[in-house]
Design goal:
Structural class: alpha/beta
Largest sheet: 7 strands, mixed
Strand content: 5-15%
Oligomer: single chain
Distance between the termini: 75 Å
Length: 529
């Protein structure tokens, strides 16, 4: 049949690969390898096949090596089971955990590991039980709160970011899904009519048609991707030569449909990072959401709109998470290896994310327990958690009065890594949330020099000192950190605590582009005797 050996259909290849690596591999995963030039695809009897020997060679090139290589760099005391490498992304972003993007969050399986009632060779005792109250003083997007609910525990979160708290509270909320769907349908229908007045649809349809013809000629897939992978073409030089050839076509179509692509770099965030047509749609949806009377649904709709516009910023696909500079024309995309376009409308993503949200809250509703979780907006070093709990009342207030808080599971900010307000700047600007950047601990804007590290030590210790006032006497605190400065022993000492256990885990699926060997430690702390 051929001179490359036996062939497999994509489905057969998925099963074969799964048996090779002990991890679920789908036909879509195999097709990805073909599209990105990792293996060859061949059409036989009208269906796509791959060569079995070629697939084996691809997986053999790295199978098992990462664990060996990482342990040689990180040390053999890392618990490889805590890498959760056997979980697919759909599992690590299950149900409401992907209600909104958030940099710097841990995966839910890590929280579950320490909160649930199992023991193993590393975790030799059970720390928490159903009915306990868990505290996360650096709540972020609410992963601890959601997992506490799944396990039948109450939870309190605190975060200085008003929008972070809203994301967290939306995740754990119970919804009338029929009402949510009704509001979404109404907004979507209205947006479709509004978009028709902006000339966006015919412009993008013709633009995409012309891009298809251009890319088929200069960046054919998968041939071009394969040529890059095999180093037969200088990607940067070739793209710099060919991509600008499309710009006259782009300018002509923008003129034809009266699409304004001139945006001031000195403008505010939304004016700077969105095309005029997209901005009009953003403010139109906001006006509809502003008129929603149900506060719970209104906040959820704001989260959907924020998630939508995050994906519609005028930037390249590869820079969506980092935002280097606005892109107002077509451009060569290093992610897709072809000429791509920025987004001129938010309609597609509004539809996608609104339906995805309904699906996710349905999934969570099917497993959620009848327990209470809430994230407060505040400074964890100063907030009176007892008073805050009394003010919201309900079951969690009764629980706290009888039992207080059993312990903490949290991942504080890392020194000089993320500006937490700035990552959602578009939401703060659009919805008018108050920003309190000055209260962020370890923010990127504060740097990571000696003074910044010392300030971080003091700030984290102050949070722990304040929070332990609301814990049971024999509390357990678990802090997740990449302690490259070796400061958590100092923090524990300053807070009147001691580190009783350390659990080290490799972090395999980082969102950053740096894929070097990386680990983090889960510190167990207790009151110093």
């Amino acid at each position: 049949m051929n001179n490359k050996g036996a062939t497999l259909t994509l489905e057969e290849a998925g099963k074969f690969a799964s048996s090779l690596i002990g991890k679920d591999v789908t036909a879509s995963n195999i097709n990805y390898l073909i599209q990105y030039g990792r293996i060859d695809g061949v059409t036989l009897n009208g269906s796509l096949h791959i060569y079995r020997d070629q697939l084996t060679k691809y997986y053999d090139s790295f199978l098992g090596r990462r664990e060996i290589e990482w342990k040689s760099k990180l040390g053999n005391d890392v618990n490889w089971a805590l890498s959760f490498d056997n979980y697919k992304e759909a599992q690590t972003t299950k149900h409401v955990h992907r209600l909104h993007p958030y940099k710097g969050k841990y995966i839910p399986q890590l929280v579950e590991y320490f909160l649930d009632d199992h023991v193993d060779d590393f975790k030799k005792e059970v720390y928490f039980a159903k009915g306990d109250i868990i505290l996360d003083p650096f709540c972020g997007s609410g992963t601890t709160l959601v997992e506490a609910n799944e396990l039948g525990m109450c939870a309190i979160g605190v975060d200085v970011s008003a929008f972070n708290a809203q994301i967290a509270n939306c995740k754990v909320q119970s919804y009338d899904i029929a009402s949510v769907s009704k509001y979404i349908l109404g907004i979507t229908t209205a947006l479709e009519k509004f978009e028709s007045t902006l000339n966006v649809k015919p412009f993008e349809e013709e633009l995409l048609q012309q891009l298809y013809l251009f890319n088929s000629k200069y960046f054919p897939s998968p041939e071009f991707k394969k040529a890059i992978y095999q180093k037969r073409v200088d990607e940067k030089a070739y793209a710099a030569e060919k991509a600008p050839l499309f710009l006259p076509t782009f300018y002509g179509l923008a003129s034809k449909y009266n699409i304004n692509y001139n945006i001031s770099l000195d403008a505010n965030f939304i004016d700077k990072w969105y095309f005029e047509t997209a901005r009009k749609e953003i403010y139109y949806i906001k006006s509809l959401i502003d008129n929603v009377d149900d506060t719970t649904i209104k906040q959820l709709l704001q989260v959907i709109l924020s998630r939508t516009i995050r994906s519609c910023r005028a930037t390249t696909h590869s820079d969506l998470a980092t935002l280097l500079k606005p892109v107002y024309t077509t451009y060569y995309c290093t992610k897709h290896k072809k000429v791509c376009k920025p987004l001129f409308s938010i309609l597609k993503w509004w539809k996608t994310y609104s339906q995805d949200t309904i699906k996710r809250i349905k999934q969570f509703a099917a497993i959620r327990t009848n327990t209470s979780q809430y994230c407060f907006v505040g400074d964890s070093a100063r907030i009176d958690i007892e008073q805050a709990i009394e003010e919201i009342g309900g079951d969690i207030a009764k629980n706290y009065k009888n039992n207080k808080i059993r312990g903490i599971f949290s991942s504080p900010p890392y020194v000089g890594l993320i500006d937490y307000h700035e990552q959602h700047a578009y939401a703060y600007e659009l919805f008018g949330f108050e920003r309190k950047d000055e209260l962020e601990i370890g923010s990127m804007s504060k740097g990571y020099g000696r003074l910044a590290v010392q300030r971080y030590i003091d700030d984290i210790a102050n949070v722990l000192v304040n929070c332990k006032k609301f814990l049971v006497p024999n509390y357990d605190i678990f802090i997740v950190a990449n302690d490259k400065h070796n400061i958590y022993p100092i923090i524990a000492e300053k807070a009147g605590m001691e580190i009783t256990e350390r659990f080290r885990r490799p972090v395999l699926n980082r969102t950053e582009k740096n894929k070097d060997a990386y680990s983090e430690t889960i510190f167990r702390m207790k009151e110093k005797v």
